[in-house]
Design brief:
With 640 residues, the protein is an alpha/beta fold. Helix content is 32%, strand content 23%. Bound molecules: adenosine-5'-monophosphate-propyl ester. Adenosine-5'-monophosphate-propyl ester binds next to helix 10, strand 20, strand 25 and strand 26. The site of adenosine-5'-monophosphate-propyl ester has 21 residues, from helix 10, strand 20, strand 25 and strand 26.
Length: 640
């Protein structure tokens, strides 16, 4: 794979990727093993979101992520698993061992009847078997759809239905810090409406008591059968370049979460290329991505990107502050981590825990630090740089999205300039533009605008599962001819980008994407709720917090704390704990225009505590509601 090692080389590569993308990506694709070459590098039409990459090629991504390395460097470590409890032994797998495990799980899935193109939902904790399950799906050509362990039964049911999934892989329970999550019973509840699932494969991990349904199959029993058959020396299924590799659900500004679809070849090329170049990976290095595989970062930079490069990837089961706030640094020291990739929320929370947790931890192996998922603030950036990196490690601030498949804007560690709190420059193949609200391209520098991409790239979203129209509407019609990120960005005089947060109704809470409409919809399911409005507000640790304004029936007769508790409980049932409002006030009216539209701008100001700069309220149907809301918010400072 081409590694860009100087700023000069970056400029050359970038220029070529924009002027002759076909040639550029054809060259990058040479580094992979293909069962059959492509007929055309890029075809299709960006405007209708129908681009295809490497059309006609045949491959299996695991040929490249596993088999190639199992042959060339069988004893190189592929996966190091660090358990939740530091006393539990680490589990490690070389490329040869990873290959055997993935083959076995692939065979288990085949035995269950999983076929190419079937959708397999994976709802598991961060254990090695989750990685095997993902790769086993890829190996047999089934489409994996991983669901984060923090989602509720209702969220799972919605996703199963939308994806038309035939199979689920889960485990009895997962552990995160001192919490236990009863995954299997959540799955049982998700299936309780009679969803026609074919099989549920259950890993008995913590040996907690579970119900057994007729469609349940025990992982260990099946594993033993397959092992006894010794039937695992099989190659991966031959796939077309554009066959879907996975579906991952993510929130938008409207409606239910949508299933972002990524296809095989383009995603493979992009994740491999970006991992190598952004982190400047050197053979033999250990990479620790702290993201959960339930999110895209875990897909692209815990599993696929590192493995495609033959790297060693660390997978951590737990949370940063368990048993104490030194856990990440202990893991870094224990496994001699070279490349460390985490989210600003984790950095802020560890920073606030105090520097003493870094003391006595040998962090000298660290070479590159990465940040992802939300804007990083100056203070957190500096702490990360000075205290964690001891001033010696470049920080890559990587901007991308579930829909982009991999990193889009970032410095290349130590190769292209870094600038605190700036994602900096686009990767080769990425053509960012800033558009004003009328859709006109802003060509000058020192400006802020709506961030779009003007050229297709190999790992761009292919469709939203089952509803291509929605994909078009969400990303390609706001500004015709461009892919719209939903983010605002500032471009400085040197052409470097700084992300400025979402410009739509999507929140970013602890690096997790949540749509305000989704939370409102959940709140509206609570008893007595008539209407609600949700906005984000700045939160010291989480980046953004969720602020809910709710109107209830008979609210004068009610016990406010008890209704607040009921509403929060409903949100947890409808979406999951990640969408819990941080603040929730019961109000008697919302600021609406005469045409009935809620003025969120006003609610955002109130949530931010900026009561003085609310602006004009004369267009409101009833301006007095604003005063009432301010009064309630000021009186009710307690977080929930
Ligand atoms: O708002 C941007 C923010 O996260 C959103 C994408 O969220 P998701 O699809 O969950 O993917 C997260 C992991 C890639 C973006 O629209 N975001 C992501 N990275 C950054 C960021 N905001 C600022 N700086 C970043 N580096």
């Amino acid at each position: 794979m081409m590694k860009i090692t100087s700023f000069q080389a970056y400029h050359v590569a970038y220029q070529k990727s924009i002027e002759s993308p076909d040639e550029f990506w054809e060259e990058m694709a040479q580094y992979f093993s293909w069962r059959q070459p492509w007929q055309e590098v890029l075809s299709g039409d960006f405007a209708s979101a129908r681009s295809e990459w490497f059309r006609g090629a045949k491959l299996n991504i695991t040929d490249n992520a596993i088999d190639r390395h199992a042959l060339a460097q069988p004893h190189q470590m592929a996966l190091i698993w660090e358990p939740n409890d530091p006393q539990t032994p680490t589990r490690s797998f070389t490329y040869l061992q990873l290959q055997q495990e993935v083959m076995k799980v692939a065979e288990m899935l085949r035995t269950l009847g999983v076929k190419k193109g079937d959708r397999v939902c994976i709802y598991m904790g961060m254990v090695p078997e989750l990685t095997f399950a993902v790769l086993a799906c890829a190996r047999i050509g089934a489409i994996h759809s991983v669901i984060f362990g923090g989602f509720s039964a209702k969220s799972i049911a919605d996703r199963l239905e939308d994806a038309g999934a035939q199979f689920i892989i889960t485990m009895d329970a997962a552990q995160r810090g001192n919490k236990m999550i009863p995954l299997k019973s959540v799955v049982d509840e998700a299936l309780s409406n009679g969803y026609p699932i074919q099989k549920v494969l259950v890993l008995d991990y913590l040996h907690t008591p579970c119900n057994h349904a007729h469609h349940d199959v025990d992982w260990k029993d099946l594993y033993q059968q397959v092992e006894a058959m010794n039937a695992y020396a099989t190659k991966g299924q031959e796939m077309d370049a554009e066959d879907p590799l996975f579906i991952l659900y993510t929130s938008g500004s409207t409606g239910k979460p949508k299933g972002v679809v990524h296809s095989t070849a383009g995603y493979m090329v992009w994740t491999a290329f970006t991992f190598l170049n952004v982190f400047q990976y050197q053979p033999g290095e250990v990479h620790f991505c702290t993201a959960d595989v339930g999110w895209v970062t875990g897909h692209s930079y815990l599993i696929y990107g590192p493995l495609l490069n033959g790297a060693t990837s660390v997978m951590f089961e737990g949370v940063p502050n368990y048993p104490d706030a030194g856990r990440f640094w202990e893991i870094v020291a224990k496994h001699k981590v070279n490349l460390f990739y985490t989210a600003p929320t984790a950095i802020r929370s560890l920073m606030s825990a105090g520097d003493e947790w870094l003391e006595g931890k040998d962090l000298s192996s660290l070479r590159v630090l990465g940040s992802v998922g939300e804007p990083i603030n100056q203070e957190a950036w500096q702490w990360y740089h000075d205290r964690v990196g001891k001033g010696n490690c470049p920080i890559v601030d990587t901007f991308w999205q579930t829909e982009t498949g991999g990193i889009m804007i970032s410095n290349l560690a130590g190769v292209t300039p870094q600038k605190p709190v700036f994602a900096t420059l686009p990767l080769p193949g990425v053509l960012p533009v800033l558009l004003d609200d009328q859709g006109m391209e802003i060509t000058e520098n020192n400006v802020t605008g709506n961030l779009c991409f003007a050229q297709p790239w190999p790992s761009m979203i292919r469709t939203t599962w089952g509803d291509h129209e929605r994909c078009l509407l969400n990303y390609f019609t706001t500004y015709p001819g461009y892919y719209f990120t939903g983010d605002g960005a500032y471009r400085d005089e040197e052409g470097m980008y700084r992300l400025a947060g979402r410009v739509d109704d999507v929140l970013n809470v602890s690096g997790h994407r949540i749509g305000t409409a989704e939370v409102e919809n959940a709140i509206n399911h609570a008893p007595q709720v008539i209407e609600s409005a949700v906005v984000g507000y700045p939160h010291d640790i989480k980046g953004q917090g969720i602020f809910a304004f709710v109107i209830c029936d008979h609210q004068h007769e009610m016990d406010i704390p008890s209704i607040q508790t009921k509403i929060v409980k409903t949100v947890v049932e409808q979406i999951g704990p990640i969408a819990k409002p941080d603040r929730l006030v019961i109000v008697s009216g919302l600021p609406k225009t005469r045409s009935g539209k809620i003025m969120r701008r006003i609610l955002r100001k109130i949530a931010e505590g900026e009561f003085e700069s609310i602006g004009d309220t004369t267009t409101l149907l009833d301006p007095s509601v604003v005063e009432e809301i301010i009064r309630i918010v000021t009186a009710n400072k307690v977080a929930h």
